[in-house]
Write a structure and sequence with these properties.
- By secondary structure, this protein is an all-alpha fold.
- It has 29 helices and no strands.
- The relative contact order is 0.10.
């Protein structure tokens, strides 16, 4: 079934393109059908064991195909689309069936929270028909209007998120699977060990490198933790870090994957569609924030190893980075080709497909034995599972997007954001951050981004903020939700592997990444950090911000060359915040504070070393 779905997707994407709505409907119905088989009532974790699929699951899988068969074969498709705002009774019945199956598939795949919110949204849409006028919170909308808008138009389920999922996200997921089959996972792990093996606390840096490389392909912070964490967390613990620290390091490292160009997961592809700019622009805008994120994590690890007195740990990798690059050349060829196609603004779908072909050809030349039936089956199953996760999340999110559009809530919320922004831009951004994190606590990060961006991105841009900066702000916090207590799902996953307290691990992960929370505000207020400006303006914005996250991280980690006192830590944190704030006065004060603490620290350390020599 997975093979047929992948072949069908490639056929309708590259050989015989069809109506975007029809393709989206077929995609959604196929994904729902596979979800009921893969996430059966007796197999809720989606292990994919076909012998455990019960009759009701097969029945639901069959029913999921009916909406597509009805729209394309049973009725005139053109007339079906034209009567989207006034559907027939048969249309309404099929639409209700589709929405019901979608919510149940969503409950099985992504959990009950997002489908529950979507169901509540649908009930609110029609609530004015059944409640007294004084209780109305939406205009009076008939069931016909709501179902037609959600099912028969591109306002609801089949809005931009699903369109992007079926066109762009699918082929990027295919690229990720081809890269792994060509040896990408082994290359990422081995090159990270070779690069970080000779450093103090090397396994921690190894986790950062490996998780960033793999996470940029998986697009899921949780999946990143579960794959790379199984290997990196035991090594981090063995190096001398506590279990809680190991879990926090891995969760923060895994979060970096989706923020790292050139492949930034589903959210960045949807961002390109929302903003109407080339994907290259999104990738370019993400470069400096990603570098500053790694500077934050690297500085924290540097200081933490000094505070804990952790020394160099041997790793099992004996080959150099250069020899590994030669050994795994197909991986670099595939990645290089994709990056080049992105930079030349080549059609994204075709560029990714060409990179997949190069990976497969190069992989068969360098390691033909890897291309066997079990591995190919694993590739198709992995691609299908990822497509189900993303496709269902985007489709359910489409219900909420549609609700905002047809009820007029978008205008109301925009008015609230503009009112907050008129008082203070920071207040409007803070409210956006809170909404994004709260949504991200119970829903996939891509869903949190879709919903928040659909509501608040436009009004924030009306405050004079660059649209790309606003979307990047929302995108960052949709990922940070996984490491923000009380429901820090990414940190909880890492804590399960590390066997540490989930809440303590989550709070430590948030503390470790805290400078990047302020960084998200910085690139909205200093859009030069997103390469929106002249070269000198970009440098002037980047240098103080880099110093800011460095000072902040040293303060939160509690050491430079030796442990810092509480006052020194507080001054460094405050200096970091002042440097992130875009103003000349705060930059001068922040630099003075950070340099002052560094000078006092070195002076105290020199006296300590002198006493030891005398003693």
């Amino acid at each position: 079934m997975s093979g047929g779905f992948i072949a069908g997707q490639l056929y309708f994407l590259y050989i015989e393109p069809i109506s975007p709505y029809l393709h989206a409907l077929m995609f959604a119905c196929a994904v729902m059908s596979m979800a009921f088989i893969g996430f059966g009532l007796s197999n809720p974790k989606g292990t994919g064991e076909r012998d455990r699929v019960v009759l009701i699951d097969w029945a639901l899988a069959g029913l999921s195909i009916i909406p597509f068969l009805y729209a394309y074969f049973y009725v005139d498709f053109v007339q079906f689309l034209r009567r989207g705002s006034v559907p027939s009774q048969e249309d309404i019945a099929v639409g209700i069936l589709f929405l019901t199956l979608l919510l149940e598939a969503g409950r099985r795949v992504i959990g009950p929270i997002l489908p529950g919110i979507a169901l509540t949204a649908l009930l609110i849409c029609v609530s004015a028909n059944y409640l007294p006028p004084e209780w109305h919170i939406v205009p009076q909308l008939s069931v016909r209007r709501v179902v037609g808008s959600m099912f028969q138009t591109e306002l609801g389920v089949f809005s931009q998120p699903v369109q992007v999922a079926m066109r762009w996200i699918f082929v990027f997921l295919l690229f990720g699977q081809c890269l792994l089959l060509a040896g990408g996972r082994e290359f990422f792990m081995r090159v990270s060990m070779a690069a970080a093996g000779g450093l103090r606390g090397g396994p921690a840096y190894m986790a950062v490198i490996a998780s960033a490389l793999f996470g940029s392909l998986s697009g899921s912070n949780m999946a990143n933790v579960m794959v790379t964490g199984q290997f990196t967390i035991p090594w981090i613990i063995r190096a001398g870090f506590s279990r809680r620290q190991a879990g926090a390091i891995e969760s923060v490292s895994s979060t970096a994957g989706a923020l790292t160009p050139p492949i930034m997961g589903a959210g960045a592809l949807i961002m390109a569609e929302y903003t109407g700019v080339p994907y290259l622009t999104i990738v370019a805008a993400a470069i400096i924030p990603a570098l500053l994120y790694y500077l934050t994590v690297g500085t924290y690890l540097f200081a933490l190893t000094r505070r804990l007195g952790i020394e160099v740990t041997e790793t099992p990798e004996t080959e150099s980075v250069g020899s590994l690059v030669l050994q795994y050349w197909p991986v670099l060829v595939g990645l290089g080709w994709l990056v080049w196609r992105i930079m030349t603004l080549y059609p994204l779908e075709r560029g990714v497909l060409e990179a997949c072909a190069l990976l497969c050809i190069g992989g068969m030349v360098s390691n033909r034995s890897a291309y066997n039936v079990p591995n190919l089956r694993e590739l198709t199953n992995g691609l299908t599972r990822q497509t189900i996760d993303i496709g269902i999340a985007c489709a359910v999110s489409g219900i909420l997007v549609g609700t905002i559009l047809i009820t007029g809530w978008g205008i109301t919320i925009a008015g609230v954001i503009l009112q907050l922004g008129s008082a203070s831009t920071l207040i409007a951004l803070f409210a956006t951050m809170v909404v994004t994190i709260v949504l991200g606590m119970g829903t996939p990060g891509v869903a949190a981004y879709i919903i928040t961006a659909a509501v608040v991105a436009a009004p924030l841009s009306q405050l004079g903020l660059p649209l790309i900066a606003v979307h990047m702000f929302i995108f960052y916090f949709s990922n940070f939700a996984g490491i923000t207590p009380p429901v820090a799902l990414t940190a909880f996953g890492a804590a399960g592997i590390a066997k540490s307290d989930p809440f303590k691990t989550g709070f430590l992960a948030m503390l470790m990444a805290l400078p990047t929370y302020f960084l998200a505000y910085a690139f909205v207020l200093r859009p030069e950090l997103l390469l929106l400006g002249e070269p000198m303006e970009i440098v002037v914005a980047s240098v103080p911000t880099a110093l800011g996250v460095t000072f902040f991280s040293l303060g939160t980690a509690g050491a430079i060359k030796q442990p810092l006192s509480g006052i020194e830590r507080a001054v460094l944190v405050l200096s970091g915040v002042l440097l992130i704030e875009p103003a000349i006065l705060t930059d001068v004060v922040g630099i003075a504070g950070g340099i002052g603490i560094y000078y006092l620290h070195n002076r105290r350390l020199g006296k300590y070393n002198q006493r030891n020599l005398v003693g």
